[in-house]
Amino acid sequence: CVPLAPRLSAASMSVVEHVREMASAGLHSNVRLLSGLLLTMSGNNPELFSPSQKYQLLVYHADSLFHDKEYRNAVSKYTMALQQKKALSKTSKVRPSTGNAASTPQSQCLPSEIEVKYKMAECYTMLKQDKDAIAILDGIPSRQRTPKINMMLANLYKKAGQERSSVTSYKEVLRQCPLALDAILGLLSLSVKGAEVASMTINVIQSIPNLDWLSVWIKAYAFVHTGDNTRAINTICSLEKKSLLRDNVDLLGSLADLYFRAGDNKNSILKFEQAQMLDPYLIKGMDVYGYLLAREGRLEDVENLGCRLFNISDQHAEPWVVSGCHSFYSKRYSRALYLGAKAIQLNSNSVQALLLKGAALRNMGRVQEAIIHFREAIRLAPCRLDCYEGLIECYLASNSIREAMVMANNVYKTLGANAQTLTLLATVCLEDPVTQEKAKTLLDKALTQRPDYIKAVVKKAELLSREQKYEDGIALLRNALANQSDCVLHRILGDFLVAVNEYQEAMDQYSIALSLDPNDQKSLEGMQKMEKEESPTDATQEEDVDDMEGSGEEGDLEGSDSEAAQWADQEQWFGMQ
């Protein structure tokens, strides 16, 4: 604030002072009404208020509009305020000093021009006009940029792909505030070495007690952003076990996400549940949690999670993604598409929302549109394997095996030879008869590293089924199920047991699969097929019933792709009632 000597009468000053006091008190609706009236008076009588008073009124009025989320109107008033400030600066330069050193507490304190520009940038980001936001902040001289301005600039530069400028701004934030952890994460995400980032905080770590964990924290997230999931998990676990950081929700959420990236869904769900118990209002990461529950067939739990998240906030992407996962795994792809689009509208950087929308588009046959979404997800999260899996599935769905092979090889080279990348490459090799042997070698390597990795087990079983090596497949599946229970593995084991005429045990496996996921259609079909073979008369009756029902309820349930326009107009359905 810049104090200026009063120029008008005490009565005129008191009005502007009242507006300023109400603004400071957070009485935004009152400020909006009064400042609007006073600005109209000023327009009708330009001599009524001084240039500095009019500048203040414009800023306070714009602030109240910003609070009401009328961002375009706020930008307009902020622009007028800056123009008024420019005119004020010119007049103050030519006006001689009065020499009046006595300043009363009621003397004017002008709103900061830099703060006004920051608010304008906030408006532009809310309006998704990032270029305008960058332009207004770039206009502030470097020496006058506050930490929050540098932080906003860093994030905007990063989003625009201007990595060098982003790194410079993040470093400036750390220079001013060495404990700005989100700025540290920003630097690590831009491939700045962990040791370099740690050196920027070493002085504060050494000077403040109980901060020795920070260097380990930086090391852990350096591993996260280089895709070294195993070392990241081990490092965060060592932090989480320390008494002072035990039961930290952010660390548990990071662990859950890392287990998910490593393909360890069981531990991922466990960590998400622990974090949720500690913080019932937790939103961050719940989209991934909902996706994992949906994959396991726990659709009732997914529905409950979605409703709970909507009650917390419908202005975050996560509740929309969770409800979208429920729709997707209920085969309501149009609804999943709408919900994914809504989530992206709320947060264009939501990787899970992009994956949901991409998967819905793919299953609706709109493969090229799906490819665009998976590519954007890869840009935002280059270390997440599921982003690449979605894109490769699109390539395979459109018979672009060559593109799929190139992408799988790139992932293998970039993320390293682990069970997940080996399995992904093997999946593509299985599509080409020429590379069947290579697929077998890759899967054997993956299972040597992780014998319990479900995707590798499923693909190896698929290969053994093609070769009709059912006994080998049964042994593989029994071994995989020794320490875990999975719907798909039990169902495939049932299929293999049918192939070797072990019908009773096959029925048992289908039953276990359906108990884990009542919506698993293939297990249900396997069981029904066996029942029909056991009772030909009953089978004929069942076929008649199926013919009668074929165009009825089932058609209504899954024929929802024609309902897309309805869902766009019925937002009250989406867990917000």
From TrEMBL:
The keyword Transmembrane does not apply. Residues 525-535 have a biased composition (Basic and acidic residues). Its main location: cytoplasm. TPR repeats lie at residues 351-384, 487-520. InterPro entries: TPR-like_helical_dom_sf, TPR_rpt. One of its GO terms (biological process) is cell division. One of its GO terms (cellular component) is spindle. Pfam families: TPR_16, TPR_8. Residues 525-577 are annotated as: Disordered. Belongs to the APC7 family. Component of the anaphase promoting complex/cyclosome (APC/C), a cell cycle-regulated E3 ubiquitin ligase that controls progression through mitosis and the G1 phase of the cell cycle. The APC/C complex acts by mediating ubiquitination and subsequent degradation of target proteins: it mainly mediates the formation of 'Lys-11'-linked polyubiquitin chains and, to a lower extent, the formation of 'Lys-48'- and 'Lys-63'-linked polyubiquitin chains. The APC/C complex catalyzes assembly of branched 'Lys-11'-/'Lys-48'-linked branched ubiquitin chains on target proteins. V-shaped homodimer. The mammalian APC/C is composed at least of 14 distinct subunits ANAPC1, ANAPC2, CDC27/APC3, ANAPC4, ANAPC5, CDC16/APC6, ANAPC7, CDC23/APC8, ANAPC10, ANAPC11, CDC26/APC12, ANAPC13, ANAPC15 and ANAPC16 that assemble into a complex of at least 19 chains with a combined molecular mass of around 1.2 MDa; APC/C interacts with FZR1 and FBXO5. This is Anaphase-promoting complex subunit 7. It comes from Mesembrinibis cayennensis.
